[in-house]
Amino acid sequence: MPRQLSDEESGSVRSSLSGRSNLSSPPPSTHPNRSIQAAASRDDTPATGTRHITFEPTQPRQREDDLDIDNPDKWVWNTYGQYLVTKVTPWAFNRKDGGKTSFEVNLAEVQRMYLVQLRIKLAHHISRWEKSGGGLTGSLSSKGKIDANEGSWEEDLHRYVQGLQDYDYMDKCSQTSRIDPFRMSGESKLDRIILDTSLGNLNAEERGLTMKTRDVRRWDKNMRAIIPSRTDNRYKRLFSRVVVSAVGAGFLIGPMWLMMLKTGLYVALISTSAFVAVFGVMMACVLDEHIHVLSSTAAYAAVLVVFVGLRGEASGEAPTP
């Protein structure tokens, strides 16, 4: 049976234990991490009205090859949407309209985005056929079965062919017409009102509209029809025919008068070469087909050569330098 301690013995034991505890722990003022712990304890309990700032990892920007085949709209927009809307400014020497800005929308880019979406859908059809080994009847779902809710590959292929034809038509209109009907630009007052009303709240810096298309020399003050009337088209076609006939007559009569008034071998050679070269450049600017440019230039050169030969026979002697 253990012996019980007396009051004096228990008091001495408590005093010795308290002395050991004081020796094992450093004084509060000399503790090396005391200030850090105190600061940490103060930070753990924020004061009233204190604002916490949390840093979250930013979303990585979608790369050009990050394509979701089931939802390609975002990828198509990130790839081609930057060319859809741009800024236009008046001409630098136009002091009246200096500082004004507007927008320009290229509707042909919308058609290009539509064609890219159709290409993705056609590639999706082909990938499903390859994975499932199915036939070419109807549209295949992701499980390799016919899905009536999805567009058939025949319809998508027809839309793609029709879209290419429509894009060729847009290209021809931009070349033959003075005003491109598939481009909405702020230089026209009508388009400027439409674009400023529709895109007026668009932040150019956030959207990335830092690339300017061009400085517009003509900043219209009055309304001008984008698509002319039938009467205007009739008079414009008549005027263009008159201009073409006048230019053709000038290219035929001009060298004839020159070679009749200025005789000599070098005059005939230089004038014929110069007129044929200028005529060929004009045909290259007007005509689209290569064979048409070549045939028209060759026909004009043949006419001048025949005239030079007839002139030599009429004079009865070879041209003298």
Task: Describe this protein with a few key phrases.
mainly alpha; 4 strands; extended; 321 residues; four-stranded mixed β-sheet
Structure summary:
The protein is mainly alpha-helical and 321 residues long.
Explain what the structure shows:
By secondary structure, the protein is mainly α. The chain has helices at 7-24, 34-44, 73-80, 107-132, 153-176, 189-199, 204-207, 230-261, 265-286, 290-315; strands at residues 85-90, 102-106, 183-185, 212-216. It has a 4-stranded mixed β-sheet. It is extended, with a radius of gyration of 42 Å. Residues 20-61, 138-149 and 317-321 have low confidence and may be disordered. Residues 12-24 have a biased composition (Low complexity).
Strand order of the largest sheet: 3-2-1-4
How many strands, what sense, and barrel or not for the largest sheet? 4 strands, mixed
**Residue share in β-strands:** 5-15%
State Rg: 42 Å
Structural class: mainly alpha
Low-confidence stretches: 20-61, 138-149, 317-321
End-to-end distance: 151 Å
Mean pLDDT figure: 71
